[in-house]
Here is the input.
Amino acid sequence: MDIIHLLPDSVANQIAAGEVVQRPASVVKELVENSIDAGAQHIQVVLKNVGKAVIQVIDDGKGMSPTDARMAFERHATSKISSARDLFSIHTLGFRGEALPSIASVAEVEIKTRQANEELGTCIFIAASEIKSQESVNTPQGTNIAVKNLFYNIPARRKFLKSDTTELRNITTEFLRVALTYPHVAFTLTNNGTTIYNLPASGLRQRIVNIFGKPINTKLININCETGLVNIRGFICSPDQARKTYGEQFFFVNNRFMKHQFFHKAVTEAYSGLINPDCIPSYFIYFTVDPSLIDVNIHPTKTEIKFQNESDFFQILMAGIKEALGKFNITPPLDFDTAGSPEFNPVQSEKDTAYVPRITYKTGYNPFNYTTGKITPEDSDFEKTTASPVHSKGKVPANWDILFDGLKEKEESVQTSIPGMSEPVNPVIPSTTCYFQLRGRYIVSPVQSGLMLIDQKRAHERILFEKYLEESDTHKMAGQKTLFPETLELSAPDFMLIGDLLPDLKHLGFELTASGKNSYAIQATPPDLSCNRAKEVLIELIEYYKNTEGNIKNKMQERIVSALAKAIAIDYNTSLTCEEMSEMTTRLFACKHHNFTADGKTIIHILKYEDVNSWFK
Ligand code: ADP
Ligand code: MG
Here is the structure.
């Protein structure tokens, strides 16, 4: 008995839909790309309930004939390629002929479309792959397609749709990728009648500014680099724009958005030394290459694109960005990778002043300005010692010796001259202190069990985290009023996002009042936060949220506190005095948990004395 049979089209389409249509955002992407391919100049995306109820895309492109409109919903029906050879020279966004049939298999679809030379258009209604009706209608030139009740016939998939905030965020992500590729096309995006984006046709710079807000304008640095292999153009952002979390990073190749880890590395390498290691620069970079050098024919929803000879592109990209940054006169003054240069910088040596250009600055804010906590021996990893501490001028806690080895030996050791050298060998540590800073990042000090390295920023984060958490637990933190409220201008989705956070922000001392379109006036800030940094911190908070997947409502307070602590904590390359390092260490050990930050990063590492010894065997 034969048991193999062909699947009905509706089932085959649903299977394909599993790959092409994962969420409302994928529908938006496919429909908008079709409008672009149809040569539209104006594209409207209209959502109801963040696309869960309706996703409608209206364009003024070339439209379809009544037969084509029907055909478009057949599997592998496309007007864009006709032979395998065409696969190597794709100039449209779509080419598989899969999107419309897939969408129509998992939703109800109504399409109205008319070509320029026709008087009447056609209207088709399809549900679960079945054409329910087709008739002639009066409709403007172009295509108006509405996708309703996505996954209505697959309850299991419908159930897996995420929160409105997440689905909307996914939609805006897809929408922006297209909007940034085609600045000369006008776009709008609305949800339940509220305009999220209204982007008139413009140049690229104007488009970026319309999306991300006016402040980005002065940060954009033009990049333009033409070689035989590739043309690279677009904008990178000045280093001070770099965000602590993922900001805006966009690569496009031949007018198609792509993700490319390797090229991303080329960008970050070009910036190295100019930004903090945990910051990521924003960029909008457009490659134009011979289509035969890239492979877009991989998974339909994958945004990775393979290049031939990737390392050539890498080099060109990195050089192009370095040049652009150089023209902007912001290349680092020193090359830090010089082999053999000493690793240890004595505290506050002259070298510190010639260090990486600082993009964040130290404000008048004193992070150590609160009462001393107590060190609990049980919490510390350190062996007890009876040696009396030798320590800089700072206040020495009573049980300091639990942590620190005395430096007697060091003090007693006499400076010796190595024969043949004119200069005496200077001990790296001044005898009055037991701390030094390594590369503006680690606080180094000898302890009983060896050499302790503390990540200064993470330590500070932990200290602030516990402090704020405790304060906000026990009472509402009183904000400090700002004399001249700064305005926080946001993009529409960010504006909505911060709306969710307002009550918790208020509890921490922020006071924001809506002022004008998509902006807030900052009326008050948390006690430790100087008002000129408040804006920066709020933007970081939003960034942090945007990139925190999962249930945000859960432990909301803790997350905001953690983000606030992250934002306020001193940056790397901030040089610290001995007193400050001492204070930081003491505070850290007064924390409930001092080994890890709130998000699980290591704060302390100890180089064991025995290990050090073994190197000299
Ligand atoms: P693909 O884009 O891969 O060709 P789709 O399923 O997305 O496959 O679309 C099938 C065909 O329907 C397209 O090739 C195109 O001819 C036509 N089509 C789809 N959307 C539009 C539109 N908005 N305007 C004009 N034609 C369209
Ligand atoms: Mg398509």
